[in-house]
Amino acid sequence: xxxxxxxxxxxxxxxxxxxxxxxxxxxxxxxxxxxxxxxxxxxxxxxxxxxxxxxxxxxxxxxxxxxxxxxxxxxxxxxxxxxxxxxxxxxxxxxxxxxx
Length: 100
Fold this sequence. Notes:
34% of the residues lie in helices and 30% in strands.
């Protein structure tokens, strides 16, 4: 639940830092905003749905290629993990219609 959200956040932050390092090596990137930003994890606005606790992370990217690279790094860690009451599910929604 919260622990898995925090574990995924660590992975995303590490991948985002690698994207930033690669971006910093490009000419003219000193004034540009970071290519990828992570906001969260935090409890979802509607925290419980069907007796499941929900957490959200928002990954903002200045362009698609860094975001795609980051999502490829994250893909093996998505899906179900754990068992019983500790079972969790991690999903990605690219271009969400709502953040609720």
